[in-house]
Design a protein that fits this description.
CATH superfamily: Metallo-dependent phosphatases
Structural class: alpha/beta
Number of helices: 6
Strand content: 25-35%
Mean pLDDT: 95
Shape: globular
Helix content: 10-25%
Distance between the termini: 46 Å
Amino acid sequence: MPAKSEFMNLLFIGDVVGKPGREAVSAIVPQLRVERGLDFVIANGENAAAGAGITGTICKSLLEAGVDVITLGDHVWDQKGFENEITGLARVCRPANLPASCPGRDHVIVAKEGFRLLVFTVLGRSFMGAKAECPFLCADGLLRTLAGQFDGALVEMHAEATSEKQALGWHLAGRVTAVLGTHTHVATADATLLRGHTAFMCDVGMTGPHESVLGREIQPVIGRFLDGMPRRFEVATGDNRLSAALVESDPGGRATRIEWLSVKGPTGR
């Protein structure tokens, strides 16, 4: 087995929203891999298909753009037929705390230069509608079952409540490389290293159109708040950006640095 590098650079990309988000990944990731010396790129792709769910074709396009692992969230089954496609996608994992009967992998392990990175997602249960088991116990179980098979672990907490995300961060502090949040599409100003060298951020933000309301066209959302009438919320297009957390890890899987990145995409203004 090759010797591990002194440090490994992990990039975790927040919720990729629609075609603008996919275009941002395709344009920016290859450049960042060179400029930042990235060893692993992980992206949440659960909103990559028109803002809701993902398809096998989109998964393949993101992987071809330089993403190593695609994670998913509560919209995992939004696209018809994806439950049949996911089993054939080796570097795509659905949330680990969904019922065991659900198709797809509950984790992915990728390796580079002798460093093995475990990646998995757990869904929060506060203010979330998905049927999910306890994220704390699920994470404990995976780490216990896979002990000895990985050098570092990146845990995505796909959740609404910041308190639940912070609680999981402290629960796993010192046991994993990073606990990084997604789902709210709004980046939080709390990137930090917890005790035991675990990188943490409540939400790394959204990759896609930021001249929007959570990636959707502005006026229909405002209208819905004003009168409550149903409207179609199309994916917006303005101010396209990639939002991500860059985590540096030592060979033992301990985080030494975390940095939030916001990079203008190909149509950004």
